[in-house]
Each structure stands twice: as C-alpha cells, then as structure tokens.
Amino acid sequence: MNDDSVFDLLPAHLRGMDDESGGVLRALLSVLAGEARHVRDDAYALLDDLFIETCDEWLVPYIGRLLRVRAQHTLSRDGVFSARARVANTIRHRRRKGTLAVLETLARDATGWPTRAVEFFATLGWTQHQQHVRPAAHGSADLRQGDLVELTGGPFDALPYTVDVRSLARGGRHNLPHIGLFVWRLDSYHLAARTARPAADPPDGRYFVDPLGRDRPLCNRPSTEDSPEGIAQEQHVGGLLRRRPLHAELEQRRRALVDNVAPPVRFFDATPPFQVWVQDMAGAPFIEVPAEQIRVCDLTDPSPAIAEGWHRPAATRTYAPTGGGPASVLPIRVALDPVLGRLAFPIGVVPAAVRVSAAHAFAGDLGGGPYDRGSDLGQLSRRQVDWQMGVSKRFAPVPGVIVATLAEALAEWNVQPPGRVGLISVMDNEIYQESLVNGSRIQVGEGSELLIVAAGWPELPVAGGPPGQLARQVGRIVRTGLQPALLGDVAVAGLAPGNSDAPGTLVLDGLLIAGQLTVVADGPANLGRLLLSHCSLVPGTGGITVGSGNQDLAVTLVRSITGPIAASNTVPALTVTDSIVDGAGNPAIAAPGAHLECNAATVLGTTTSKTLAATDTLFTGVIATTRTQTGCVRFSFVPRGSVTPRRHRCQPDLLLANAPPAQHPAIAARLAPAFGSTAFGDPAYCQLGELVAAEIAQGAEDGGEMGAFHFLMQPQRLANLRNGIEEYLRLGLSAGPIFVT
User: Fold this and answer.
1) Tens-place pLDDT, residues 12-63
2) Domain coordinates in residue numbering, the chain
3) Is pTM, for the whole model, over 0.85?
4) CA-CA distance, 656 to 196, in Å (whole number)?
5) How many Cα atoms sit within 13 Å of 316 on the Cβ side?
6) Helix, strand, or coil here: 251?
7) How far apart are CA 419 and CA 346, in angstroms?
8) Which residues contact 619 (CB under 8 A, 6 or more apart)?
9) Under a CB-based contact definition with an 8 Å cutoff, are residues 636 and 602 in contact?
C-alpha cells in the first residue's frame, strides 16, 4: 500500500479537480493511507506472532509457557542464541520421550551446541549371553585398528570399559545409568577461497592455510543428520579434523575411480571440509583440485631436516583394480595436513597462487571473522556515507570505484575535502602486504569520518533505471563471509586543530591486522574517535599506540582482539566491550591519563589508568588506578595487590573477606583464572578452562561467566539443559553434559 493507493481509487474527474485545486485531497488521503499501512503491518505482525516459527523473539518464552516448557533462561542477547527450536520441537520431543535421539536433539535445541548422546552402559565390557551376542563389543582393545584407538576417550570411543562408580557430576562415565551428552562449544567458521600464504620466500611449493603463516588446525563443517532418529557421527559435528578418516575416504574415492563404482561418502559430500584451488601461472584462472587428487598426510617438520622441507607427495599413485586387471596411475596434485593447516605440492611444482576453503574453530563471534555482522552501518556510524571505494585483488579495477590496494584507496580518500563520510570496503579474502604509514597513512580531517570495513559491495538494481541495470550503490554493503588480512603497520593522523569542536573519526570493522595501529603525534594530532569493531590486531605483533596530542580522542573496542594498548597522558577515554586485550607478556593497558571503562572484557596483563569503571571483566594482571575516588569495579576478577576504586562483589575479595588468613593462599590459587589457551590463533584462545572456579565461570552480574565471552551465556545454556533433561529421561537414568571442546 503506497501513499497514493487510496487516491487512485477515486473517479478520474475527482482526481482532476483535486490536481487543479493544489492536491489537498491527495495529501489528506496519503496521510490516511500511511496510517492504514501501519494498521495492516501490525495485523500481519499479530498473525506472525501466533506461530513459533515467525513470532518475535520476545514472544518465544511466552509460547513456551503455554506448552509448560520448564523454566528457561532467555538467551537471545545480541542474537547469539534463541530458544525457538527448543519450544518448536517440544511436542515432538515428548512423543519420543525416553529415546536416545530425543536426548541428543533436546541438548542441541537447549544449548545451540552440536551434541552426541552416548549410552555408557553399551560401552561396558561384561560376559556376553549366548542369546544377546554383541560381536562389536570386544573384551580388549584391538591395537591394530588405528582409528579405533585414536578415538579413545572421546564421544566416538568404541572400546570396552569396566564400571566407573563415580557420578557424572564427579567425572564418572561408564556405568549402567549414565548417559553422556558430549557437546562441542567451539563454533566452526568457514572461509571461502582464502589465499594461502607461502611458507618460504620465494615460494617453494609449501603453504600455510592461515594468512599469518602459522600452524592452525582445521575443523569440520557440520552437516545435517540423515534423520531425526539418528545419532550424530563425526561428520555431523564441528570438531577438529583428523588425518586418518580423511585419508581413508580419499583413498577409497581413488580406488572407486579405478573400480568404476560409486565412492562411499562421509566427509566429502556437498559441503566438504576443505577445497583447494590452484593458479598455475600468473593471470591464469584458478582451477579447483578434485578431492581425488588431494592426499591427506602428516606434514610435520621432519627430524632431521631434509632439503625439501615438509614431506612432499609423489605426483602420481598406482592402484590395481579390485577384480584384477591393469593398474591405473592417478595424479596427486597436492598434500594437505588438516591438523597443522599445511599444504605441500610435489617437488618442483610451485603454483603462482593457491586458495583454500576451510573452517577454523573458535569460541564465539569475536575478533575478525567471517561471521555475519549485519548490513546496517548504523552500528558503526550515525551519519550517511557519501563516498565509497572498494578494494579487491579479485575484481577488475574500475577507476574511482575499485582499486587493488588499500594504499590506492587511501590516496583517493586523503584528497577528499573535510566533512565527508567515507567507506572503504575490502571485498575479498586476500592477503594485503602493505605498510600504511608515512605517505600512505590514513588522514582524517575535521568533521570527517572514515570507515574501513571487510564487506562485499554487491551490484544492485538501479532505482528508476531500465530492467536489468545493476550498479554498486554507496553505503550498501554485506558484512559477512570475509576476513581480509593486512600484514603491515597502520598509522592514522587526525588533522583537526586542537580546539576543534568536530575532530574526525576512524572506524575499522572485520579486519585481521598483523601490525601496529598508531595514532600519530605529529602536526595537529587531533583525532576525535577511534572505533575497532570485530577486528583482530594480532597479539605479539600488533596493538594500539596513541601519541601525544589527541586530547579529544575516545578509543573504543567492541568484540575485538588486540595486543597491548599504550596511550599518552593526553588521551581522555578508553572503552573495552566484549573484547580481549592481550599484553603477550607486556603491560596490557597503559593509559595513565584515560578514564578506562571495561564491560565484559578479558585483559591479559597489567592495567594502568587514571580512573576505572569495570563490570563482568577478567583482569589477570595487577591494576593501578590513579584516582580511586570515582568509578567502580563490579562482578569482576581483580588480582590481589591491585589499586582500584571501590569494588562490589569482586573475586577473590568476596571469598577472602570471610575466610581466615591461613586459607587465603589456597583460595587465591583455586580462583586463579584458567584458559584453554593463551596463544592467539588456538581454537580455545581465552576460553575459560573446564576446571575454572565456579566463582569466575558464574560470577558475572547475570550469573554468566566473567570475561570477553560473557555474551555467549554458557552457564545459562547449561542451566536450560539441566532444567529440561530430566523430563525426557527413563526412570533410574541420569544424563549430563561433557565438554569435547
């Protein structure tokens, strides 16, 4: 319904009379049509709200209450997780109550994590009855089955065990009443056609999947199970990939080619765990390497070292048909190690470029990553973009629209007049080895705002143009699926005078930067705002440094990872929200003149600031605050010896206050933060360890965990699972979650 829809229903002579009188009736009816449109939209929304599939998120708990779904924590904060599936499947779950498949599905719906349910009584080794023979239940481990031994202790363990009399809550597993719900808490993040980084300079045929040139394990892309009654297998969950099953499947595919039969499909279905593209010479098209021409093997550094480095595959392999006959020689284009994230070509084969589609594991949507960050730029800027340029090595250059390097785009931006709002969208998953300093640095004039965003810039239909006409429209971007890597330092200069009422703004979003971000101190040196949103400044090689001047600068980190932050005394404000600041052995935050505000942050290293306000934050190093009369630290972990403003329900203070002094060392040791890993790039980087104290894992204001991953609401997810699981268990059984990752 448009504004003229009611007016168009009038007879033609009345419309003509209204046009002659100045269009008063048209204006009145357009107002009425607008109100009618609101009534219509509200009626449609009310209809949508009657169904769990289409209702607004806030209505999900109310519909769940109609079905008497047991008490559920609301988990829709920032769209991280919804209980919609749990409520939608309630009736179906109750109809299949007591089955193993429904327990697995319920756990997945209640937590949002991939889950495999295991009946531990089936893994017990007892004397078999002649009327209940179990051929697969061996009395002892068959060490000749390497895959069977490799899965020992995990969710796919098939070895026999003796009875474990401990309860599930105390780590017990193998007992008659026990059902284990193995959950994968790490998410799988798939990057399509990312450029692989050569392991040597010049390239010699060895590559890292990771653009930073590090060993980084690949993980599986989860797939849907064949039926709701099925139990999740290894290919259905987003676990870390293993060499053995992938090698075996590709070998079976090659033998199937020789035997001219259909190959078995397990991992390499419509969504394979990895794909490789090769460009044989510069300028040539990228050709995908068929799965049958990839060999999965161990590319660990040999000891002693050999001339060709990692193991190099033979260029061909010979296979004899199963039924006899002449052997076939099949080509092998590349070897891939999913555990290390490495590729190696046969000796003498050096492609011009290599691209790999693969997935990595991480705890949540934090730091630079391919996850969906939305298409609304209102989260980054309140102003309308009036200048845009794309950066891509894959799209053909278009003067004034798309260029091949960030330096070229910045050269165009730096000559724009002050007051403009610019957007540079990095449109691919390439590696940009550029140093954006000195003459190539970012310049932000008075009243100007520049956004550098990892985002696609699609061609859209032109409004009012002929059918089929497409064009890239300023400000219309898609912030998903990309993680470009910038290997180099970045410098930014604010050009506004010191007494300016409107100093400029720089926004970085979705970028992976392996270098130092510096706000320069030469010239006017007055930047108004620096926002890092969903970015990663690699700890150890990157961080943020702010020079003198910049007396109006407010530095803000949102869902980002960065190395140490060092700001001069003149910088007045620093805000860290849902982010990780990793000092990598050095002071994490050194901002002696700033008001520091931390909201659900993880700070690895010491912290220095003028004033401090913190909530749900995990500090691992001593805090030194100059002015303690203002500010407050709430529901946070504060190391002993720290100087802070007043504290409210912080740890370990809360426990130490009522404990005798003799117990203080033991309490402090028990409450020490523990992480799965503190090495950037590891899947469990800064994820709280499984054995971390409950006072930290559930010590936030809302009962969630302290630190940067507070937004995942993991304690609430587990509480939802425990609240609902008993309703679906058979009498005498007990079930509980077991973390795989």
Assistant:
1) 777 778 777 777 777 777 777 777 777 877 887 788 888 888 888 788 878 8
2) 7-48, 69-177+718-739, 188-362, 381-456+475-654, 661-711
3) yes
4) 51
5) 6
6) helix
7) 55
8) 603, 607, 636, 637, 638, 639, 642
9) no
